[in-house]
Amino acid sequence: FHFAVDHCFPIKGQGTVLTGTCLSGSARPNDMVEFPTLATQKKVKGLQMFRRKANVVQQGDRAGICVSNFDAKLMERGIIASPGTVKLIRGAIAVVRKVRFFKGGLSSGAKFHVSVGHTTVMATVSFWGAREIATQVEEGSEKKNASNNAHKKSFGKSSLGGSADLAGLPRLKFDWNQDFLHQDNYLDVLP
Q: Which of 160, 144, 164 has the alpha carbon at shortest distance from 95?
């Protein structure tokens, strides 16, 4: 069960209501849900959809979930999920492309907002490996052109159901044993 919370407010005598959209799975009253960013779990007290009591919420439903003994000030937006299903990370490796409308420079060590779903955090970026990644992309495209079944390649899916390949970024396997050259800035083109 994954639920994207877009609003959180207290109701006197009832508890705290979390409104949002069920992204996957389902929940029922008395199920336990986890607040991954707060490292806490609460029991679902009740469910509502369009001001009517509900026995279950499932993928795609807009709903309100009532939990007791939870301070609404601790969370405005975010994710709640089945216990143990959301793992928090402290770092990530990603292939990125600069948005063409962004005219400023991008430097290693700069801070950026990174958003996934309703959650936004500040991240410090380090750029590295443009030449090494370009080599992998070239090798991958040569293999793809040589293969007769290239058009049958399956596309990856993101955790929210969208195609991971829509951004036009290459899909690469990361090799932890390979050395990558650190870059002071994001490179638009290779020197």
A: 164
Q: 114 and 123 in contact (C-beta within 8 Å)?
A: yes
Q: Are 43 and 98 in contact (CB under 8 A)?
A: no
Helix intervals (H) in the chain: 130-146
pLDDT tens string, the chain, 191 residues long: the values are: 999 999 999 999 889 999 999 999 999 999 999 998 898 999 999 999 998 999 999 999 999 999 999 999 998 888 899 999 988 888 888 777 788 888 888 899 989 888 776 678 899 988 887 677 767 666 666 665 555 454 444 444 444 444 545 556 666 677 778 787 888 888 776 66
Tell me the C-alpha distance between 55 and 28, whole Å.
6
Distance from C-alpha of 14 to C-alpha of 17, rounded to nearest angstrom: 9
Cα pseudo-dihedral 65, 71, 75, 76, rounded to 10: 70
Q: Which of 71, 56, 50 is nearest to 1 (CA)?
A: 56
Rounded to two decimals, what is the model's pTM?
A: 0.63
Q: What are phi and psi of 140, to 5 degrees?
A: -65, -40
Question: For residues 48 and 39, what is the distance between their CA atoms, to the nearest angstrom?
Answer: 25
Amino acid at 130: A
Alpha-carbon distance of 172 to 181, in angstroms, equals 17
User: What gap in Å lies between CA 81 and CA 124, rounded to an integer?
Assistant: 27
